[in-house]
Structures are given as structure tokens and as C-alpha cells.
């Protein structure tokens, strides 16, 4: 199963959702790969901490290396698993991001390499039980490549009126991409993030989404300073605070995803 976590709006929790769901799956024994397509590299930083630039030739490792070789000589190309990193967590692996992705984007787009991520992940699919893809907060080459490569998309929603307006544009873009490039892509659901049960607006917004028939997951994620501590310490919540309320919410969301997957396979 290849899931992409995507929203064109920034600050909705894509990285937190990607890394914590992946870490829970890994802790449960699923061999899990995380792909960081955001040039900011927040997912990479979250899972492995600071990277020594001298020991990380940006165009030779990680996602940048994977894409870079697609415009080079065929005989020099490596298997996709050559670009995968270990993380400190058992069963959890990473295709890290780098700033080189920004410089490469125009060349990759002009040479129509939009399907190369799909080809690479198809080769890795038998090696991993779950693949999670984090994306940049815009509808660019890398997010399109991720949506083309994925089986399903999770949409974080941060209970803001602006987020609701951008959601419709996002769903239109996904529908167009499904029609043109990936008809098998499923909108698996909307993940309610930073939910405040004490305020009226979040509940009203979620209720309106549900009334419109949009696929909203039953498990909501609340705001917590523990998440910021998790980022700072480069430790997903299942490792940092396994008994915390927010960790429990992520566990509930992960269980909901697994039930959905099992039902689809039945």
C-alpha cells in the first residue's frame, strides 16, 4: 500500500501525520518506507535529525539521487533501494529529501519524468508492507509525481475556514489527476488535525464536510505541545510518549486505516 499525504495548504500537519502513522506501522511490525518529497526536508529532519552536508552529496543520495539518475546514462542507474536510508527505528526506512530537489524540478518536468517515482516505488513495493509519501504544500511536479505513484491519498484538514476553501480546489486537482494519470488513486479520507473539541468552529466545519458526503475519518487528532517536543527530539510519538492522548489518537487513526485496507481486500 502506497499512501501519499497531501494538501496544497501549508501548516496542516502533513509531516507529523506521515511520520507518526509510518512509525506506528513500523512498531507493529510492518516494514515501512517514508518518502520525503518536500524540499524543506522536515520529514527527513524529524526521523533522522541533522544531516552533515559534507557526508550527504545531495544529488547522489535520497530522492534527489533517485530522480537525478533518470536524466543520466541508463547503464549508470542504480536500483531504487540504493537510495534508501535506515532510521533509528526498527522496520522504518527513509528516502530523504534535499535542497537539490528545487534545482532539479524544471529539468525533470521538461523531460517528463513525472512517472519515474511510480516506477521506482513499484520496484520497491515487494520490499515494504507500507509506503508513506510526504509532499510539498503545493501542486507541483513532486506532488503530482507522488499522486501518480500512490494507491491512496490522505488529506490533512486543520479545522480552519481557509482550509475548507482550499479543500475544494485540492479535490478538483486530484480528480483531474485521477482522470489524466492515475484512475486507480483513491481519496482514502480527510484527517482532522489540530482539533479543539472546546471550540464551536472545528465541530461546525467537520459537520459540514460530513454533510457534504466527504470521507472524513472518525479519529481526530488534537493539538498538543507534545507534538512540538516530538519534532524537537526527532522521535515519533509512539517512541517518545506511547501513553499520551495524542499518541492514542494516532493509534486509533492507524487502526481505522488498517480496517479500511482489510475491508477493501476482502
Q: What keywords describe this structure?
A:
266 residues, globular, 11 helices, 46% helix, alpha/beta, Rossmann fold, seven-stranded mixed beta sheet
A few lines on this structure:
It contains eleven helices and seven strands. The chain is an alpha/beta fold and 266 residues long.
Shape: globular
Strand content: 5-15%
Adjacency order of strands in the biggest sheet: 3-4-2-5-1-6-7
Number of helices: 11
CATH superfamily heading: P-loop containing nucleotide triphosphate hydrolases
- For this entry, what is the oligomeric state of its chains? single chain
Number of strands: 7
Mind telling me the CATH class? Alpha Beta
What's the order of the H and E elements? EHEHHEEHHEHEHEHHHH
Major beta sheet summary:
7 strands, mixed
Q: Helical percent range?
A: 40-55%
Rg of Cα set:
18 Å
Corresponding CATH architecture? 3-Layer(aba) Sandwich
Which stretches of 5+ consecutive residues score pLDDT under 50? Answer: none
CATH topology annotation: Rossmann fold
What structural category characterises the helix and strand content? alpha/beta
**Total domain count:** 1
